Structure formats: C-alpha cells, structure tokens
Model the fold of this input.
Amino acid sequence: MSYIGRSLRRIEDRPLLLGKGSFAADCNAPGHLHMRVVRSPVAFGRILGVETAEAAALEGVAAIWTADDVAGLPPIDFRQMGLERLAPYRQWVLARHYVRYVGDPVAVVFAVDPYVAEDAADLVFCDIEELAPQLDATAEPVTFMPDIHLGLLSEPAVIRRGYGDLDAAFAAAHKIVALEVKVGRHTGVPLETRGGLAVHDADTDVLTLYGAAKVPHYNRDAISRMLGLAPGRLELSEGHVGGGFGIRGELYPEDVLLCAAALRLRRPVKWIEDRKEHLLAANHSRDQVYRLHAAVDQRGFILGLKAEVFTDQGAYVRTHGTTVTDLSAAMLPGPYVIPAYSVEGHIRLTNKTPAGTYRAPGRYESTFARERLIDRIATELALAPVEVRRVNLIAAEAMPFDRGIETLGTAVVYDSGKYRDLLERVLDRLSYDRLQAELAARRDRGEHVGLGIACFVEKSGLGPQDLVRIKVDGRGTVAIVTGVASVGQGVETVLAQICAETIGIPIERISVIHGQTDRIEIGFGAFASRVTVMAGSAVKIASEALRDRALETAAKLLQTSPDALRLSGGMVEAVGGGASLPLGDVALHLEGAGGLTGEGRFVAGHMTYPYGVHAAQVKVDPSTCAITIERYLIGYDVGRAINPMLIEGQIVGAAAQGIGGALLEEFVYDENGQPLAASFADYLMPTCHEVPAIEVLLREDAPSPLNPLGVKGAGEAGINAVGAALAAAIDAALQRPGAVTQLPITPARLHRILRGPQS
Amino acid sequence: MASKINIDLAVNGTSHAVSIEPRRTLADVLRDDCGLTGTHIGCEHGVCGACTVLVDDKPVRSCLMFGVQAEGKAIRTVEGLANGDTLHPLQQAFWENHGLQCGFCTPGFLMLSAGVLEQNPDMSDDEIRDVLSSNLCRCTGYQNIVKAVQIAARELRARPRV
Done:
C-alpha cells in the first residue's frame, strides 16, 4: 500500500483527544517547588535595589533570588546568526544594573505552591529609577546602558547585502518609485504558555528539563555551558507542545533559572508562566519599517531596488541574533528577477519586549513591503498589478536561480519553481477577469469590494543535517528515533508515512520518538519548515538501509536472492509469490547482530525554496470600518505532498495567524513604554468568526532536486503573503491605490484612511 | 497560607475528596487536586476557553470559577467524554477531520461542543460556528474544528434520543 501522498488521519491524535496529553504543566515531581518571576514594572530604569525580606517571610517560600544570586551565570548566547559585536546586548537571566522592558525578570521566588509563589512575588519591591524609554526604532540610536557600556548605542548591527549594478539601474530608469511601509509588532502566541519542570536525580547526577520544545539538543548544550555541566549531566525531554510558531522553545532566562534552581535547591522546580507574562516576556516579532526605492522601466520591470529596513528588536538581542533582519534582507526580492539590489538592515533596540522569529520571519514583512511596491509601480505606471507581477516573475527556465546573496550562512539559490505557471493557475481558479468584472459591478452599486494578489517565495529545510535511527523489534513494530522536535504540526504521522511507504509496513505499527536528548546524540529541531525536508529525508535513507538489511537477511533464510524479495504488509515476501517471512522474524534473527536497524543521515548545504500566491477578496464597511474577507485562496507548490490534509492544515492555520497580524493583533505601547496589550482582551487573536474558509490550491509542479523525496516545507506558506494580499484587496475595495501602508489594518487605521487624520 | 476547606467534587461520576484553599480555581483543583490534567489553562482570564468543562451540563470556563463553588455539582471533563475505548462522536470527528494540531485547545473545544449539542442538538451550522467563536485555537485556522463539530452534530442527531 502506498503511504506517501495520502491524507491519513494522524497517529499522534488519540492521547490529545482523550485528555491524556503531557504538556509542560502536566509534568509533576514529588515535592516540587514553584517558581514565579518578579518582572520589571517599568520600561527603562536603573535598578537601585530589590527588597525581598517581606516576601521571604511568607510561609511556604523556599528561596528568593536576585541578580546577585546568579552573578556567576553568563548571559544567554545566540543560537543562530550571532556576531561578536552583538555580545554586550545579550540578556542576563536576571536583570543587572538596568531594566530594559516591562517584563524584564528582576527576581525569582521559589515556593511550595504556585499561589504562594505569586503572593510572595507581589511582595518583592523593585526600587527602580525610571528613565525615558526609547520606543521608536527609526529614531536616532541612543545609549544602550548609560554608565555600564560606555558609548554602546542601541543599534547593535547593520546588515548590508546587495548585488548587481544599482547605479546603472537607476540611471536607466524610466521612473523611480518610492514607498515606506510598516509592519506592526505581533507574535506567535501559542495557546500553551511557556513552562517546564527541572528534576535532578541525585543517584545518577542527571538533571532533566521537561517541557522542552523546538531545539532540545541545542538548548541542552547551551544550558550545560551556562551552568558548567559536563556532557551527560543534563537531558531535555519534550512532551506535547502546545504550539511553537518560532517563539516557543528558544532559550529564555526562565529555562536557565529552572535548571539552576533544581540543582541548587536540591528539589524539583516547576514554572508555568501565565498569559500576561507570556505576552510581556516571550519573544515578540515583526515590527519593521521598510523604505524602498525601485528603478523601473516602462513595463514596470524592476531594474534595481534599493532598500532600507529598520527592525525593532526590543530590549536585548536574544537567541536569534540577526536572523530576522538577515532573512528580510535576503528574501525581500522574492520571486522577481530584480537584477540589481542593495539593502541596509538596521537592527535597533528599544525598551519593548525582545523580539525574535515568528512563522515566516522576515518574509511576512518583506512580502508585504515588496508586494505593496509592485502595486505602487502598477499605479504609477497605470498598469494592471497582475501584469507587473508577470513581467517581473523569474521564469521557470532560469531555475535553479542564484540570487547572489546569502542568508543564514547559505547561498540563496532557488532550487526549482514555475512561478508564472502558478500565478496563472491561481488566476484561473478565481476566473480572474470575470471576478474583477463582478467586483467592479458591485462597486458601481455602492459596495466596497476588492481583490488583492500577492506572490512570494518561501524558504525551508534549513540544514545542516539530521539523523534518524529506525529499529524493528521481534513483534514487527517499528520505532523511529529522531532529534527533530514536534510542535504539534504532525511530525509523527509524516515521518511514519515515509517509513511505512519505504519498508512496506502498516503505519499503525510505527512509533516516532522525538525531542529526547537521551535517545539520540544529535538533533537540530523544528523550525524553518525543516522537519519534513530534513528528518523526512533522513527517515527515507534510514528506511532504505533497513529494507536492504531485511532483504539480505531474509534472502539467506529463504535461500534466495534479495532481488527476488520485497517488503509488503509487514512481511518479506517473494516477488512472484511463495515463501514469506514476517519482518519481526527477520529482526529476531538479527538480535545477536545488533537487530534489524537502519540509520539515515541527511546533510543539506542549501535550503529549498517553495513558492506561492495568495488572493484575497474583501468587503469594507465604511460606516463601521469593519473588514470582511469574502474569499481567500492560496496557491502553493510544496514540491511533493507527503500528507495533503496535514499540509492544508498547516496552510490554513498559518493563514489565520496571518489574518491576525494583518487586521487584529498588535502590541501597542504608551509613551512610557507600558504595554497596552497584555491580555487576550487587548491582544486580539482571530476567532472562527474572523477566519473565512481558506481555499488551498496545492501543487507538486516543481519537486526539489535537493532531497530524495523532492519535498519542500509547508509551515510558513499560509502566513507569508496575508498582509500583502489583504492590503491590496482593501486598496481595491476603497479604490484608493496605495492607501494601506501599515499593518495591522485596524478599524482606527482604516478610519484614518477613509476620513483623514482627526484634528 | 490561607486555610483549607474539605469538599467532595463529583467529576465524571467519581467523587474526589479534596482539601483546598477557597481561592483555588476549579481548573487548578481539577488539574492539581484531582489529577485530571486534560483540562488545560490557556489564559486564566476567561477568553481562550481551553479550560472549558461542563458543570451541571453547562459549559463553564473553569479558570473563572472557584473549586469550592463546584461542590454538589456534576462536573464533566474531557477525560469522561469517551466511552471506554470508544471515542465520543466529537472526538472521532476531530480525529477524522484533522480538527487538531498541537491539541492544547482541543479539550476545551470538545467540552464546549459536547455541552451545547446536548442542550440544543438541532443547532444549525451557523449557530455552531457562532458558539465555537467563544474559544481560541492558534494552530488550525478553525476550518476543520467547525467542520468536525458540524459532522459530529449530524451524527449525534441521527442517534436515537433517550
């Protein structure tokens, strides 16, 4: 039976449906303490003192730590895209000298009960001399920490990339088109808040951190370095993870504090953040301003693009280093030829929550900027927006297309793609010309309706490698062990499908073990839409090795040649019928020789680049400034679909998040740097009323030549171009080209567009 | 620490004798004192609905209710939804229709749906969508949740009514 390409229901669902999951808060240990973080109430200020006596006197409080108690711990280092000059901007696990955002951890309380811990935390008094905060990333940089780092400014780095002859492009231009756009501050907000349980086993001297996510192996090594733990003394264990979206599973101060406390207090320690903390302390994202200048010819072809990007990365540089700005710089040109390009990406710090990556980091933003630019070019040259896209899209014949720049340490080479073909398919599906005529007729009748189109290239399958080991036991059941992680995206089912297809075994007999650092020595985790590409390929390689070993062994047992045998239905059987043998028997036969196993390592020096088109049809009610999405279509080429139902699930779910960022979600701060969206009453996530039926046109037209499955990632396709498509649709609905220059398009912003600024 | 009160809580037909502070939320009591961790806590201010349970057959945000207020009432949580090994039609429909990804919001959606469909088995698709808009999911985009509940509603309607 064929498994790849089938929309199978997931093998991981049953415990989740029965309420038998094991999320971070579900982990307990006998006698565990509860940690509660005391956070800065001000955006920027000098710490004069932290008074803990009253809190310490509370019954049930075991310990209270301030910065002095963790003076030996280094700041949290970069996981990717770190630069030496970024080092002074790293965050300590507890603030030293200064607090730099509302939510900055200042102290931690450990108590026997979470309610008591919270009571005690309320009694800790932070004596802080409040200073004027920096809240605008486009303003002149200011001092990062006066007196502490002399002369160190709030611009840790400027990323410069470019290629081609920009001067010649601008000299030859028919027209220069300029644009400034802004994407608001929003983030992943998984429904499970962060948390963990650290348990030290005195007998084995092994510390285990439960509640791990995303990159357990990296975090194991990073925490070990910070605490001075020898290899083997710290293990990370992932249970169920209630959503990741890039922000969950990065190494945060609280993770390190938990581990340090379990060692020092000699008791298990548990920490579960509340929602307010999550909105104040977990990574924010986006928050970029783009200033673009495009040199175009008469057809709207972009001869050259000059870009300036400002990323508001908040208070500190966290684990992602320069990642978001780096990706923005590399992916801004997207699916278009753009023969000359230069970009200057300013990483700026402010007194807001530190920011990192969120699903399609640097692409949601840069696609918004680029597609707004394309629409502006169309307006200024009086061309159809779709026509300008056709003129600029990279031709299928140009693949592989070397962009001539790097990101995340790899050269940007689009591996395969039929961009123009996909655009036409999407337009066909929409009956584009007829639909535009219908919308025009409705506008003539007084309705405010419009259609927007946006094109994008995604990146996926970031290396460097992944390792998979597969073992069949005597009962014929299969265990796949991998170092990647699950954040709820269906990892177990997808990897099992690839294995089942390759070794011909019913999927019900396969289990997948992931995110356990004590089960496999390396693992690169779940981010950058990398799991199906990297671990999926490794599973295929491992499954083939196991298949060959099984056939070879069975051939000896059945006195035939491996070529005469095949695996099917959990059996080794003769191709022409006749003798057969359960796979479990082959495993039993090999027990003395290491068992029936297969190992697969997949190494990738380049990412693979999926691509897509979003189309949004909206209706605007000018009296209430409400926006209704009447139709949303996403065309996406995933290379090869392992499980179309799960891919559509990824795309639809991501689109909903994109709608949130485009219309609803924003971390707003007042002039003192106080966050105004610190609950779900103010940080508005879409409900099923705000998310329309999302149509998905899933294609497999351009398989990746870079991996044995031909797959590309699917995690970020649905979110990438939502802001861009909705902005274009709203422009069209209002018949005001270029009206939308800022996300989210809240009712207040739409009101300003419609009525002008209030006097 | 505040003084504790001894109460019996009837959860999924089983009596749990617990000694709790009056300020403990029902969600915390279910999870920590009854050991029923299927009820999840997503926001603690009554918006996300991950902690939805049934109290005397009505869906309730268990983070907005104190455990002591539930004394004498019949509480139902996700752990009591299946009939032995047989999944409830809602659970089955969520599974078949990919109505969950990370699964964190799932118990809340299941209990919300179970409660409202018991009260009004004849809800229209629009009414179902309206009710489901009271809970948050961050993974699925809701499409498959709404679909699963609509399918389960039809399945439940087709069953003989007791």
Remarks:
- Chain B has a mean pLDDT of 96.
- The helical segments of chain B are 26-33, 89-96, 106-119, 125-132, 143-158.
